[in-house]
Amino acid sequence: MKKNILTRRDFLKVAGVTSASLALSACGVKATNLPTSFATSTISVPTQTAVPSITPSPTSDVQKIFNDLLQESISRYAKPFGLNATDVFNRVKNSPENQKTLKDINGASFYVIADSDIPLLCAETSNNGDLVWQDITLRYLGDKAGLTIGTSVDNTDSQYKTEKYRQTGAKEFSAIVPMNAFNSDRISKEAQTWIDYAAENKQAIRIQAFWSQDFVGKHIEKEYFSSRLQEIMPYIINAREQGVNVQITLANEPFQYWKGQAVWAGEWDNKNGFYDLYKREWISEAYITLYDISTQFGLRLGKDFTVIGVAERGIDAQGYESTFAVLEIKRIKQNIIQRLTDKGESYSLQSLPFDIGIMFHIGKAEKDRDIVVPFEILRNENKGTLTKQFVWINEQTGSNIHLAEISDLLDTKDTLDDVRIAYETIFSAALDSKVVQDAFFWSTMTFYTENGWVWRNDLLDKNYQPLAPYYGVMQALLKYLVNPSA
Fold first, then answer.
1. pLDDT band, very low/low/confident/very high, at 443 (cuts 50, 70, 90)
2. What domains sit in the chain, N to C, each tagged with a CATH number?
């Protein structure tokens, strides 16, 4: 990490500290939580409790470095909104309202420079008392707010081995879910690589176990649950040995919506291997199998790794979809509890390690409602309704909530401003609910497929620079930190 150290005399001369300056303590993630090779340029100056004003001092080399850092951040921010970077720079530097003192979830104070509700730079004090200015990333501000922000990573992206790809994934996200590494039919040779990557960058990792849609029209043997989990378990153990927190998603998209009714996948239309074997009890069977195999390896569900029992779309709003899914999940949990009681275990709906993942596939309202969450309901005025939905699911099932998969459907009719508003609404509701544990973006780090096709993304562009929806998430995080009890 590049630093510029000044004497306190030089610092006070340059900064113009006044009696009205705000107090500053630590700012967010400790240095050990983010590899220095991934950090942006910083300024480090000796300080005690005073915070410098950001009024420029043209003769100061240090102020020039600070200005360059601020201008770099503003340039990234101004581009997707079509703003004049110079106007933003002058507005930010000369407005006391854009200097914010906040507290993180642990009560530590930190200092942010923002353009209204868009955070641009952060100041923290290092262990030796130096004041450090640096860019704010999703990972940084998410950790401050107590929300893990993850992304899918993709070893079919032709750029995934490049330094820029890997640095961006580490800098912006505190968790990963490897796409195409733990596929239902085989585990890729890259699976261990991603675990090592997560360990190196102090990230959590999510492993997908059973994806219902992979088995439409297919037959499976009863031994599949056991063999699949036996294959996954060594990776979980290796990840834990490296200090990586592990999540496993047991059942992805087990339900579907057929002719206006919510049903189990395979119940009415297409043949589904899981449903054919165990009907509506296949998730219970998979869970008990996971319990038995984990016990054989000396692991405890919920203690040694998190279990997301079901990840499903269509449960983001009140209606037949969410009612069906929530009632079925509650019934599944009760069934599992009874079966574990026979094994000498004692659980309740609240204590059973069985979380719920909600998938947000965002798109236009004219698309099928069972596939997408329309932009029309993801507006700021509907944030309270979405917050209540998260809380209602938690109260009905006793399960923690994860935003397991967030993505725009990449329809060319969708505007990035639609997506920005939707992402701000989703994250604001998640933070306000106090029951959402984390949020994962899907396909965010997929840009170039092996055949050279460029994926249209909505969070970062192909040069890994932020797009408008990125700042929608930032807005939600900053607003929450400004008023966490709202």
1. confident
2. 8-136 (no CATH), 142-482 (3.20.20.80)
